[in-house]
Write a structure and sequence with these properties.
The protein has one domain: P-loop containing nucleotide triphosphate hydrolases (Rossmann fold). It is an alpha/beta fold. A hairpin with a 2-residue loop joins strand 9 and strand 10. The protein has ten helices and ten strands. Helix 4 runs parallel beside helix 7 and helix 5 runs antiparallel to helix 7. A six-stranded mixed beta sheet has the order 6-7-8-3-9-10, with helices on both faces. The structure holds adenosine-5'-diphosphate and magnesium ion. The site of adenosine-5'-diphosphate has 10 residues, from helix 2.
């Protein structure tokens, strides 16, 4: 097949093949721009995560955090730039293929199937491993005992916090090596927030986590690296201990 010339490829939202994947990272995003129609809402974002790291993306509402995660999993196409996973460029791969290669995604608002049972929701999470079970269900039910109690109930009756546990559990069923978490503690009762944070903490080291979070305390205590998005661009980045607290407050205050 003939390769499209660059301007046409760009118009179609297809990125040119990029340079080889950066070494030592499981996820690398290079100069990524993402648009809705003609409106570019994420611009020239670069970030990376090494295996086992927890990387946090922060930013006000509307900064582009969800858009960035959707483009990493492949729900939104890249306008420009590149996404690499596990040493390979995946920029033009469809989302199911990225999921099968080991990227798990917990969308903002959880995205559970309310009319299916808890167990059925969890089993949907087996798609990335083509239905192959090797103990994930037992592990997930051990991690979230409430899901075991509620296994036969319709997911729509669960509380917000329980639905969030279900959404994380479903992603874990696919045995991800990289887990994308979009505001997992949003809209959840404070006492349950701690439970969810503890679970995320317990996943640390077992997989790479890219966490979008507004709660600074947890993010700063747990992240190896933080990136702050402002109006679609990274305005601040660093290890939590190295971030300028004043700049951080400025970037996140409403
Ligand atoms: N489907 C869409 N169509 C057009 N613009 C959108 C769409 N979704 C989000 N946006 C815009 O993109 C920007 C980034 O949104 P989003 O990624 O959801 O931000 P965040 O997750 O940081 O709150 C916002 O200005 C938002 O209004
Ligand atoms: Mg969002």
């Amino acid at each position: 097949m003939t390769r499209l010339p660059s301007p046409v490829a760009t118009l179609l939202g297809r990125a040119e093949p990029g340079p080889p994947a950066p070494e030592g990272s499981i996820l690398a995003v290079r100069d990524l721009s993402i648009a809705y129609g003609r409106s570019v809402v994420v611009r020239d974002v670069s970030l990376q995560a090494a295996p086992g790291e927890v990387v946090c993306v922060m930013g006000r509402n509307g900064a582009g955090k969800t858009t960035l995660l959707k483009s990493i999993i492949g729900v939104l196409p890249a306008h420009r730039g590149h996404v690499y996973f596990s040493g390979r460029e995946v920029t033009r791969r469809p989302s199911y293929s990225r999921a099968r290669s080991g990227i798990g995604y917990v969308p903002q608002g959880r995205g559970i199937f309310p009319y299916l049972t808890v167990l059925e929701n969890l089993l949907m999470g087996l798609e990335p491993v083509r239905g192959r079970q090797d103990g994930q269900l037992e592990e997930v039910l051990a991690l979230f005992p409430v899901l075991k109690q509620m296994a036969g109930r319709t997911a729509g009756v669960l509380s917000g916090g329980q639905q969030q546990q279900l959404a994380i559990g479903r992603a874990l069923m696919g045995r991800p090596r990289l887990l994308l978490l979009d505001e997992p503690t949003e809209g959840i009762q404070p006492n349950i927030v701690e439970e969810i944070e503890a679970v995320i903490g317990s996943l640390r080291g077992r997989m790479t986590i890219l966490l979008v979070e507004q709660f600074l305390g947890f993010a700063l205590a747990n992240a190896d690296m933080c990136y702050v998005l402002e109006r679609g661009s990274i305005s601040l980045r660093g290890k939590p201990t190295e971030l300028d607290a004043t700049r951080l407050q400025e970037a996140l205050s409403v």
